[in-house]
């Protein structure tokens, strides 16, 4: 299951259905400019599915998340959709 989180610089994308070294595996990062960069994991058996790639690309194009629940006026991405 793909999940999205804001840790200060864009959005971190991780997969909660795959554990790697006792943690969920980070699969991509979406920059404040909505640019997606995928992580390669050559030292484990994880493979990002095409469906999950589409979910990540769609999130980057269409979502407009806030920095936090208490800071609704501050947005993560520099441009709104």
How is this structure best described in words?
By secondary structure, the chain is of the alpha+beta class. The protein has one domain (2-68). Helices cover 16% and strands 40% of the residues. The protein has one helix at residues 50-62, and strands at residues 2-6, 11-19, 24-30, 36-38, 66-68, 71-75. It has a 4-stranded antiparallel sheet with strand order 1-2-3-4, covered by helices on one side. It is globular, with a radius of gyration of 13 Å.
How would you sum up the major sheet? 4 strands, antiparallel
Number of contiguous helices: 1
Structural class determined from secondary elements = alpha+beta
Q: Which outline best applies?
A: globular
* End-to-end Cα distance: 25 Å
- Mean pLDDT over the residues: 90
Strand content: 35-45%
Oligomer: single chain
Count of the separate structural domains = 1
Spatial strand order of the main sheet: 1-2-3-4
- pLDDT below 50 for ≥5 consecutive residues: which ranges? none
Count of β-strands: 6
What is the N-to-C order of secondary-structure elements (H for helix, E for strand)?
EEEEHEE
Q: Measured on Cα atoms, how large is the radius of gyration?
A: 13 Å
Helix content: 10-25%
